[in-house]
Amino acid sequence: MLWSDPDDKPPKDLRETEVMLRRLGILMALAMVLAMIVLGLSV
């Protein structure tokens, strides 16, 4: 790797956005599972 090569790391705000989207995806998946359980119990 040359000293003139750009860093492979994405910018800090992009990394924070990726973490936030990952958390949001997990939260949405849990919410869907919970909704399915509630709908299944109510029928």
Features:
1 helix, 43 residues, mainly alpha, single chain
Please tell me the overall pLDDT. 88
- Kindly name the structural category: mainly alpha
What is the tally of beta strands? 0
**Major pleated sheet:** none
Number of helices: 1
- Helix amount: over 70%
- Report the radius of gyration as a whole number of Å: 19 Å
Low-confidence stretches: none
Order of helices and strands: H
End-to-end separation? 62 Å
In percent terms, what proportion of residues is strand?
under 5%
Described by the principal axes of the CA atoms, the overall outline is: rod-shaped
What's the quaternary structure here?
single chain
Transmembrane segments: 20-41
Keywords: Membrane, Transmembrane, Transmembrane helix
Characterize the structure shown:
The chain has one helix and no strands. It has 43 residues and is mostly helical. The mean pLDDT is 88. The longest helix is centred in the middle third of the chain and has 31 residues. The chain is 72% helix and 0% strand. Pfam families: MmpB (PF26627).
